[in-house]
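Re: the 317-residue chain
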Amino acid sequence: MLYDIKELNENDYKKECAKLLIAFENPNYKQENTIHIAGNVTVGYGLDLKTGDNPKLLLKGYLPDDSKKLKIGNEELTFYGIIEKYRANKTGFTDPKVVKGYLQNKIFNFSLTQEQAQEVLERTFDSYKQYVSNHISDSLLKYSQEKASLVSLHYHGRFYGIRDSIRHSIVAKNSRFLSWFLIRYKTNPRNFIPFQIRACDEADIYLSNPNINQLKLIFDIFSYLNIKKEIIEYRIHKIKTNRTNSKQDYKQDTLYNLAQWYENNLDFIPYQNYITDLKKFQKLKPISQLTKKPINDITTTLKPHLDYLNTLTQKNL
């Protein structure tokens, strides 16, 4: 079990999940933009009408009455009838802009207040919470901010690839640092900038929670950072090396990426220089969606812990 967890009751856990998802999905939600396009036609705080779970169930109590119908071609369709055709890729219902226009017709007068949108969101992520708990049981990681971060990962399709590694870091290693590292650097395979920002926010929960015993955390961090470079066989690889045929490299050492960044005296390459898309934008200063402050690189993030460790060391000299 991960150390120094502050357990939340089910209601507070649900609110914590909602807080993360709202921050990442649509922090400036407005009722007049209830129906919008985010790749697909989306409702509220991210209910994808194309690929999401059954919208009829999730929007129960908020769907326009079936007596309200819109004439489209030779058909008269209800609000949900339009959604069904969109989900089935029926001719004339494949263009998100067209479908959005149909659903926003004044005949339906459909919208969700902020509170209603949050309730739909909470219905939406019930299955995501269950999936996370199926792989990392509540006995291993209780309802908490840390577990909410994994629900956020899964909601955005980024949990599956690291679920076993995360479970290992929690169960076998009892390591906040490894969990932080995996979420921050290994959940954005497409180098998609918004996901990178989300990953940093989700990961920072593991190091910034005020309930953490700082001495425990320092030993946790530096037990992994104090790696002698000569024993890391992967150090000969360069960041841009093409390793598409070296799958075994990925399996042998989950700290492979850390080894690439690790230098003497913690002289890390900031993550901005590693992420391809961020490198193209030299002036980009990513902002946390939770704190609204600039996101720190790994050196800045770990510096306070290193400084404290140095202070303890000097006291013992």
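The first strand starts at residue 35 and ends at 38.
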